[in-house]
Amino acid sequence: MTIYLVLLIGLMIAQAMAVFYLWQRLLRIESERAVEAVSHEQLQKQLAAAQRNIQDIALLAQQAASGNGPRQQLPAASSAGISPYNQAVEMFKRGLGSADVAERCGISRSEAELILSLYRNSPTS
User: Fold this and answer.
1) pTM here?
2) Given CA atoms 77, 78, 81, 87 in this order, what sign does their dihedral have?
3) Is the keyword Membrane in the record (predicted)?
């Protein structure tokens, strides 16, 4: 009878270890999926920003080709070495709103609104 009890306890321990292993594996899989979801979201945001920049470039090219207005600087994302604040001013000159400028330049909306306010009040605007 004691041998059966020892075997039963051994089987219970083995089963508990298997459940623990599977639980740990499930947690690891869920963690990996969360990381993948964040990476996927970041890639979607970058793709959306790139698409907006392409649309801006197409619009500027169309304006330049039709002669409607002066030739403007290319969108901020394609301008290397320009600060986000200078990029924001250029975008305000093209008529973009504070929310769009903040998102495209990577600045807060309050910063974008401050830049817009300063730009509107400057004598060179």
Assistant:
1) 0.36
2) negative
3) yes
